[in-house]
Amino acid sequence: MLNPIASLLLTTAILSPVTLPPNQADILISQRMSCETAIFNMESRIKDGRKITLAFNFRQLSPEWQQGAPPQRIYQLLVIMGELRQPQPVDAVMNSNQMLTAMATQVIDSCPNIGAVTYSKKHTGDIRTFGLLTNGVREFDCAAPLDRNNPRRIIPWGQQFCG
């Protein structure tokens, strides 16, 4: 299943309230289990028939993304795939729109605090982000490249910098 650090971060992200009535605590525990299952399924699907190194990181959305993100969806799951010596299996995953969309949808549907899933090809800057938009889980559009005159430009929810 998940490594201990990822499980701890996930628990913190989902079970952040301190004191809850018993029935609400049961709901949150069920959501945590559903979320862990979705991430485990993602890991299994990526590794199915492939030798790929994976790492999962949870991080809070940047402030500019939080402003446009759906309410309560303040976390992002970062899926880091491969090593320099593993380009072919990672490329096959990164180039599968259907697979990436389906996995992101399952995670976002199962994890009430996750608003976006970013897939990253390790050491390359190659990323694809899928997030919850008004019309469902979709891949974020590419934002225009950074401008030297405005290096701190804010990109809104639904956009990402593309390589």
Offer a concise description of the structure:
The chain is built from five helices and seven strands, in the order H-H-E-H-E-H-H-E-E-E-E-E.
Written description of the protein model:
With 163 residues, this protein is α/β, with parallel strands linked by helices. The chain has one domain. It has five helices and seven strands; from the N terminus they run ααβαβααβββββ. The protein has helices at residues 4-14, 22-47, 63-68, 87-94, 97-110; strands at 54-60, 75-81, 114-121, 126-133, 136-139, 141-143, 159-161. A five-stranded mixed β-sheet has the order 1-2-3-4-5. A two-stranded parallel sheet has the order 6-7. Strand 4 (126-133) and strand 5 (136-139) form a beta hairpin. Helix 1 (4-14) packs across helix 2 (22-47) and helix 2 packs antiparallel against helix 5 (97-110). It is globular. 26% of the residues are buried.
Order of helices and strands: HHEHEHHEEEEE
Q: Which class of secondary structure composition applies to the elements? A: alpha/beta
Choose one word for the global shape: globular
Helix content: 25-40%
Estimate nothing, just give the exact number of structural domains.
1
Uncertain parts: 4-18
What strand line-up does the widest sheet have?
1-2-3-4-5
**Termini separation (Å)?**
32 Å
Mean pLDDT: 81
Write the layout of secondary structure elements.
Blueprint: H1 4-14, H2 22-47, E1 54-60, H3 63-68, E2 75-81, H4 87-94, H5 97-110, E3 114-121, E4 126-133, E5 136-139, E6 141-143, E7 159-161
Parallel strand pairs: 2-3, 6-7
Antiparallel strand pairs: 1-2, 3-4, 4-5
